[in-house]
Amino acid sequence: MGYFSILGAIPGFFISSLLVWALWNPVARRVGWDLDISYVQAMLVTIFLWLAVAPLATVRQARKK
């Protein structure tokens, strides 16, 4: 089962990066950050977001068992 979850995570990462890239401008305007980022920067932000949320997913998996 682990192999198939990795296959789902790969397109999910690129879709998440596209969402970060598309939503960056409205959020950055409110917070006062730089308005323009490239897709590569959006991918880096997505990696950091996923790393920040990953421990929460492992805690949930541990509770299910």
* Oligomer status: single chain
- Level of helix content? over 70%
The major pleated sheet works out as: none
Shape: globular
| Cα radius of gyration in angstroms | 15 Å
> Which regions are unreliable across 5 or more consecutive residues at pLDDT < 50?
none
**Number of separate strands:** 0
Termini gap = 15 Å
List the secondary-structure elements in sequence, H or E.
HH
Mean pLDDT: 81
Structural class: mainly alpha
Strand content: under 5%
Number of helices: 2
Description:
By secondary structure, this protein is an all-alpha fold. 86% of the residues lie in helices and 0% in strands. It has helices at 2-31, 39-64.
Short description:
By secondary structure, the protein is mainly α.
Secondary structure layout:
Elements: H1 2-31, H2 39-64
Helix pairs in contact: 1-2
